[in-house]
Amino acid sequence: MSPRRTTSGGSIDRRRTIRFTFDGEAYTGHAGDTLASALLANGVRLVGRSFKYHRPRGVFSAGIDEPSALVTVLKDGVREPNIPATRIELHDGLRVESQNRFPSLAFDFGAINQLGGRLLGAGFYYKTFMGPVIGPLKGTRFWMFCERFIRRAAGLGRADYAPDPSRYERMNAFCDVLVAGGGVAGLMAAEAAAKAGKRVILAEQEPETGGFAKWSNETIGGKPAAEWAKTASERLAALDNVRLLTRTMVWGYYDGNTLAALERVGDHLARPPKGHARHRHWTIRAGAVVLATGALERPLVFPGNDRPGVMLAGAVRRYAGEYGVLCGDKTVFFANNDSAYQAASTLTKAGGHVAAIVDVRPTISEAATALAAEAGVVPLTGQAVVETKGGKHITGIVVQSFDAATGALSGDARPIECDCLAVSGGWQPVIHLASQAGAKAEWDETLQAFLPPAPNQRWSGAGSFLGQMTTAGALESGRNAGLSASGKKPSRARLPEVEPSPLEIAPAPIFEIKAPISATRGKAFVDLQHDVTADDVRLAHREGFVSVEHLKRYTTLGMATDQGKTSNVPGLAIMAEARGISIPEAGTTRFRPPYSPVAIGALAAERYGNLKPNRLTPMHDWHVEHGARMMEAGLWHRPMIYGAPGETVEQAYIREAAAVRRSVGIVDVSTLGKIAVKGPDAAEFLDRVYTNMFSTLAIGKARYGLMLREDGIAFDDGTTWRLGEDDFLMTTTTANAGPVMQHLEYFLDIVWPDLKVHLTSVTDQWAGAAVAGPEARKVLEKCVIGTAVDNDTLPFMGIVHGRIDGAPVMICRLSFSGELAYEVYSGAGHGLHVWEALMEAGESFGITPYGMEALGTLRIEKGHVTGAEIDGRTTARDLYLDWMLSKKKPFIGSGLMDRPGLIDQNRIRLVGVVSLDGQPLGGGAHIVEQGSLDALGQSIGHITAFCYSPALAKYIGLALVKGGKAQHGRRAFVSDPLRKRFGPVELVSHHFFDPEGRRMHG
Amino acid sequence: MAEYSALSLLKNALTGNCDWKPAWRKPDPKPAYDVIIVGGGGHGLATACYLAAEHGITNVAVLEKGWLGSGNIGRNTTIVRSNYLLPESIRFYDFSVKLWENLSHELNYNVMFSQRGVLNLAHNPAQADAYIRRGNAMRHGGGDADWLTREQIARKVPGLDLSGTARFPVVGGLLQKRAGTARHDAVAWGYARGADRRGVDIIENCEVTGFLRDGDRIIGVSTSRGDIRAKKVGVAVAGSTSRVLNLAGIGQFPIESHVLQAFVSEALKPFVDCVVTFGGGHLYMSQSDKGGLVFGGSLDYYNSYAQRGNLPTVEDVMSEICAMFPSVARLRLLRSWGGVMDMSMDGAPIITKGPLPGMYLNCGWCYGGFKATPASGYSFAWTIAKDEPHAINAPYTLSRFERGAAIDETGHGPTPKLH
Amino acid sequence: MLISCPHCGPRDLAEFSYQGDATRTRPEPASTDTKAWHDYVYTRPNPAGPHHEYWQHAGGCRAHLLIVRDTLSHEIHSVALARSANASGARA
Amino acid sequence: MVERATPLGADFRPGSYGDFADGVGVTLSEPSTGTIVEATAWPGHEKALTAALGRGTGLSLALAPGAGAYRDAKAAAFNIGPGRFLVSGKDEGLVDDLARAVSLETGTITDLSHGRTALRIEGMATEWVLAKLFALDFSLDAFPVSAGRATAHHDFFVQIQRTGDHRFDLYVFRSFARAFAMALRHAAQDVGYAIK
């Protein structure tokens, strides 16, 4: 006695046999099978173990709502856990494992948890494991000890650490009408919108469109429904203005009619073609949306309702109708509505045997009675299943008389033998997307279900999503929704003909059969995956966790991978009953994206494995070829050092920095932010944004400038060059190029729209090479033509234009290193050319390319500040840049820079630090006045940058220290417990080297 | 026998679990209280609990608009840490961690505080220096911090992309061992029960619709369940601060409300042990006891009260998690949700007497409210009881902006979305 | 979320950069009224409902937009170029 | 004259790549653009600017947002913001011509010839590939030939002009060009692509 394949029927391709393995065992199925249908066809009933009690579980549903039959797919060398067997299309080579069991599915140690059933009820963890108040396990230790075991027992599937080799991609799409759901209603809607000339996308989560029509054995337009759906689908696919996406689930409804959908492009293939994605993440901007997402069947809650073989009636129907699989030899239906009778009818037609139909309602419709008669049974009305029998699968049930009005059970308990129990507790429209879109669902007394709220974005609904449970209703509402989404009125044209459907799909308001539970009967489960029972819901009620959100959180109801698709409404109904209020009064949980789980890689797709692009200077390849070790600076890559063989980083930067002081060095400064500031008001604008004056700057000269934020804190610094009366070139720090641009644009657009100034980012237009050192001028003299570079023509802060080896250049005499230095700017496309020419010209002077470490060393020696000191908390005064705060004019930040807290002398302020023990200082080390590594003192500041200074022959650094200048000459200690460094230092002026600046003026 | 213990569980199991009492009563509001706390979230409940436990003030009501714990206590990513840079923050959050360590006992409620550690990854030397500066600050402030090398990280966190070819290669990481995670809902429920058992009235579905005033002075609140008078009214409604202050006539305030999304994957067997934060972007991840990977990233960057996130942020967060853990791409996102953050102008909270006489204010928690719950409740209760701040919340004034004494951990200045 | 840039048409949220509250008035540049500067820089109405705010179409035309958007529903009521909105006195 | 170096690097070399067994879906190339200029008008002077640009390039530019004009292999221009245009031409002297044509009363001209890199994508699968990167509607109705769009793909700012039914010129910041070409190539894997 077991499930099996029929000899004919269904839409699977019986000529194509597919091999797959489950827990290492080889099986076969057919093309068109899901893993679930194929396992059932092979008589496999035990498929998984439940989350908490490790109870045996089988296939429960036939779709996305599956709570029990979760497996791990082994593919591409990686594990993909927690995939419902009902969602896996069979393909050659498919390998699948069961999960949450040890050592095997049939014999699972975890099943011991079932013995502690009552102990392990809702809230169990909150009430224990607090541990002892004294001893080695006090505090959090005892809990953490227990938690290790709890964690191992919890979880479902096991993931591995092997990188996922799959390709994912994102696709942006635009359409007039998006139809979510390709059942009968969706097909009608799409066709109506397409005929109205709209651009339409139809997304269907299953491999084929058609929905119920695929297995319902009805007729539409005189044809079998499945055939009608196929033809309708083909018609749509042939249209230019329709994109038909199958295997595509719309999972998120975001603001502004932006919807997210996942297309499973390659999961059903043994191997996707080269360069093709496994999943494609669609972001669809839709003018209007038609939600035709259907309805899901609910189970009934009764003792033992989780045994393998207990299934949804609609699922039993689908397995028979679509896959040619009979879920049992003797099937009993148990229902509170007529849809189970349709299922029984389909099963009978497929060759199955209906052992009984148990119905909680005292009377049923004539149509239902007739269908039962076709199936060869007289419905047991006014009765209910109170117990299931069996071990790892169901072998029988027990029924008793049931009073639908009071829920009371009476009379004899009668056993019925069966190997499949098909349950229907009514239907719940899939309103998730509508709920995500913003509004609260509305309870419908007739359907005993939540219906979608009134739309608050541009969507309309169709089909069973709206509670239209008949095919005729789907056809009509589908067409109307398509028309309405196209801005058209409902049509009166004839719809395809269907058989009349006198069945009563609205269920009796029965959710639970309250029979006493026992070890043999089993528990009455509400949430099958998370093992939440009806008693758990009542315990939550008893303890005051009565709001639906508390219920969910206290019991974990509905929080499993199926997100409560089959359990939310029954759980709510049981709580409502316990509270003595109606279901809508008890509330509904808000649905959140995704509708059903989505691969994380799919959502990350568009990055192509590179989280952030690499930003390269024109000389990048040269640096790499010449041994540079590159480092990141924001998105940029810059040389840290140019290492000679065998050199350490420290040796390299000392060599490079020393070369600059001794003769000449060259460094790539192309990454500096550069903004063209042009227009008649450019000078006025700069006066307002910089703390110092720029309107007085002569053409052909540059000036160092400082910007503050509105709150008076230092923001950025750099030089700005006046190239013409109305033409400035502003430079910013590398890191702040973007923020400064945005800051300036904000003020021009919003605060001073009257100023005539244009800004253009020209960072990428210019390559920059700084040539620094006593021999710098000689290098330029050797290669620059078209201008002199002597002190008169090119004084400090002067700018000249000329050519180097045929390329136009602009040279500004600026110094960050404190040496005689020039920044040579050329068009970026000429950057490498000019760089190489400078290297050649400098060869006889021993020109040395230097990296960020040497650049940092030179600036520390000079006491110049960078982002390490301008860290968003320091003021100009903290950095002793008060001389730049103009008193002649207001500027951004001048209004708040004098607040008492910002001018306090005791703030942490810039000082120099000298190591007195000859050891390095360490970035991020702190400064203390006393203490040791064992007894840490009080921090009075921290080191922002340090280096070995070749010019001073010692380790020096910059620091922000309480009191700043007042500390000069004081002894203190560097304290770096993280790196176990403690040592004496002297606090000194931050101008270590050539404080008068003779060298750069030389 | 303690109300909750292994023994009581066993006893109740044998009697069909019929004798459990409600975790907190559902009383009707009295006409007047000594103290009203507006806001039945973590901070409000903790405040009430400490008012009763530490100061003997039990004639207290906590008023909650919806269901208890429905604000950010119920929608955060459950991380507890004190790995801060500035001395004010270190002092406050370290105090909080100390309270966390004993919280389950204190409340006789397992809040599942698990000191699994929080690891901040550094991806370049400058970032490493910044983290080391922070770690040193933590150590000098009396806390714990350790620097891990790449090799140590490889052993501690399998699955991280530690290859040299990673776009953001890991150079080291800052570990705070005493940090970890807790069961967020349990914190709300534990404090609620703790307060309730000490006599505090917790009143759900009671929305404050206005303040009762005597001149300038606040003397109570109007609610959807009638007027309630009080000698002192504490407001702890982070996420809705501006809305509630509006009811008291305060129309401009240094707070913006922003939405922060959080995410959870399907449940898995143990995958990652500690909390890991990614330095190449804004991302943090841990694993819950149930097995879900819990993670989050940046704000959605615009004012919102909608508890509803947007897609570009989802994509950014997923990109970062895949960059950090390349195997996670194959796993599946189960659920996402949004919480409304009370973003202050410097990223630090406000816990103070005022701004009106009779009123006490606790707000501006930005991302950091959950871990602060015990210290926030403790110091707010202190401030209400004694009419002066405790040493740990003394810097968290409202006047600090005008004085130029912002406590700006990130250095982003008055741009709330960046804190 | 889509924002209809008056210049570029409807574009994805990802192209825009939020620039915050648009109701504050900047004091005169030379003002030394710390309180006025404080209010401008630090305080906001932060309403639950329609919110006047600036966005920059940073990943597009770079223009700043004045947008009225509901912070409860994210529904956008109006979008205008900030320059023209401010110039024509349409500012809130 | 010193030749301008391409930023695309050694990897961007001619050949066929990806799934090209059944032919390539798109072709990528770096068109030669001697001059790239950003021209911006003061408010109220937009018409004068388009006229001046027309004199400099021979293009006739409409004043609508995103409007553009294109003369095969000679010059191209399109609107990228209020009063703002990106102009490109084969000729390197164009920048001087435009600087002369646009007076300070009308607006400003900024030379970006080195600062932006143009990449061309063409072929039947062009829209499919671009839709992976950009949230733009690439249908001909929404994005007609010669029109332009300023848009972004994460950190890449890209200005796009449609220069044919299935042909687009993409202007990116030079320092990002190599990374962007990588992203584009990755996106074209499934349709197969050639580099010309």
Structure description:
The complex is a heterotetramer of chains A (1002), B (419), C (92) and D (196). Chain A is α+β, with helices and mostly antiparallel strands and 1002 residues long. Helix content of chain A is 21%, strand content 29%. Among the domains of chain A are: 4-116, 2Fe-2S iron-sulphur cluster binding domain, sarcosine oxidase, alpha subunit, N-terminal domain (Ubiquitin-like (UB roll), Roll), CATH 3.10.20; 166-296 and 427-498, FAD/NAD(P)-binding domain, CATH 3.50.50; 621-671 and 764-864, Probable tRNA modification gtpase trme, domain 1 (Gyrase A, domain 2, 2-Layer Sandwich), CATH 3.30.1360; 673-761, Alpha-Beta Plaits (2-Layer Sandwich), CATH 3.30.70; 904-1002, Aminomethyltransferase beta-barrel domains (Elongation Factor Tu (Ef-tu), domain 3). Chain A contains 23 helices and 53 strands. In chain A, strands 9, 10, 13, 14, 15, 16 and 30 form a 7-stranded mixed beta sheet that branches. A 7-stranded mixed beta sheet of chain A has the order 43-44-45-46-42-36-47. A 6-stranded antiparallel barrel of chain A has the order 48-51-50-49-52-53. Chain A is elongated, with a radius of gyration of 38 Å. The model of chain A has no long low-confidence stretch (mean pLDDT 95). Chain B has 2 domains: 27-79 and 184-254 and 346-418, FAD/NAD(P)-binding domain; 113-180 and 256-344, 2-Layer Sandwich (D-Amino Acid Oxidase, Chain A, domain 2), CATH 3.30.9.10. Chain B has helices spanning 6-14, 42-55, 87-101, 103-107, 125-140, 150-156, 184-197, 241-247, 311-324, 369-386, 400-403, and strands spanning 32-38, 60-63, 79-80, 118-122, 146-148, 172-176, 180-181, 201-203, 208-214, 217-223, 226-235, 255-267, 275-278, 283-287, 292-303, 332-344, 350-353, 359-363. In chain B, the strands form 3 sheets. In chain B, strands 1, 2, 8, 9, 10, 11, 17 and 18 form an 8-stranded mixed beta sheet that branches. The model of chain B has no long low-confidence stretch (mean pLDDT 96). In chain B, helix 2 (42-55) runs parallel beside helix 7 (184-197) and helix 3 (87-101) crosses helix 10. The N and C termini of chain B lie far apart (47 Å). Chain B contains 11 helices and 18 strands. Chain B is of the alpha/beta class and 419 residues long. Chain C has helices spanning 34-42, 82-87; strands spanning 2-5, 9-12, 17-21, 50-56, 64-70, 76-81. Chain C has one domain (2-87): 2-Layer Sandwich (Folate-binding fold). The model of chain C has no long low-confidence stretch (mean pLDDT 92). Chain D has 196 residues and is of the alpha+beta class. Chain D has 2 domains: 15-31 and 114-195, Probable tRNA modification gtpase trme, domain 1 (Gyrase A, domain 2, 2-Layer Sandwich); 35-111, Alpha-Beta Plaits. Chain D is 20% helix and 35% strand. Chain D has helices at residues 46-57, 94-101, 126-133, 177-188, and strands at 15-17, 26-29, 35-41, 68-71, 75-81, 84-89, 107-111, 116-122, 148-153, 156-164, 167-173, 193-195. In chain D, the strands form 2 sheets. A 7-stranded mixed beta sheet of chain D has the order 1-12-2-8-11-10-9, covered by helices on one side. In chain D, strands 4-5-6-3-7 form a 5-stranded antiparallel beta sheet, with helices on one face. The two termini of chain D are 25 Å apart. Chains in contact: A-B, A-C, A-D, B-C, C-D. At the A-B interface, strand 7, helix 2, helix 10, helix 11 and strand 33 of A face helix 1, helix 5, helix 7, strand 12 and helix 9 of B.
